Task: structure prediction
Amino acid sequence: MRALRLLEWKSEARLEEVDEPRPGPGQVVVKIGGAGACHSDLHLMDEFEAGVVPWNPPFTLGHENAGWVHALGDGVTGLEVGQPVAVYGPWGCGVCPRCRLGIDPYCENPAAAPVPGGGGGLGLDGGMAEYELVPDARHVVPLPDGLDPVQAAPLTDAGLTPYHAIRRSWSKLPPGSFAVVIGVGGLGHVGVQILKATTAAQVIAVDSRADALRLAEGCGADHTVSAGDGAAEEIRGITGGRGADVVLDFVGVDPTLRLGAAVARTVGDLTVVGIGGGTLPVSYFSVPYEVSIQTTYWGSRPELVEVLDLAARGLVKPKVTTFPLAEANTAYQRLRDGTLEGRAVIVP
Result:
């Protein structure tokens, strides 16, 4: 079968012929209907080197995957060949307290995981291929009726990651509250939709690109603000001077972190989702009182079920551009250039 493989750090992925996977006991092979192209993959191809993460190439890219059950290993129950499914991307040890709750990204025994801190497309073979081997059937989540794998694929990260970040702050988003979304890209535009679908907050979207702000409006944002000088003052004005109850930074560079701290309300949340590598100095007087600052990574398997339900009911729908497997590197180049609106999905 064909697969898009990262053979070494700081190199472009290559399309190669590899053996079709066969499931062992407890495993599942999924025929891929769609595999999301994520900005995180660019870090693998352009920036990472040995020692940054506890695994190395070669492996097949693609950690946002959905399709149909193709083959079942011995002992697998509850799934049927041909059934449409999504693949939960982070693969932990399965037995530590976090994994038992379905929070595999925070696995506390990574040495016992299939690959420490990773999963399919992140150290192990992912879904930018005709088939993907999933090492444990618990990572295979049935799709609700009416949800197509091409739409479902990006929800496994670009939907799940903002959903987890927003869900943890639900108690701070009642009527009368404000949420700021910084960066309306592949994750941010889905984050706007999730905020509108699950909270009563007014949503303020911030981006430097006019087309991204138009996308935010189309996703339901109540206000849009152009990033740059004056953005903090404009957001403060929208919120009546109080600031935002929740700020979600989907970029994570120094300027966006400073903006988030400048517009956060007392007792609010500033959640850093983007991995832009920025830093935010924190001292007693540098942020409003009782502002909680946290990073998040992916989300839980039960939360993925909830995201898929929202999508099946039409409440969350990522903007998707599809590419055939042979043009996957074109999709990644458009991600690098910033010319891709929404999410790219590779369709083998």
About this structure: The CA atoms of residues 254 and 279 lie 6 Å apart.
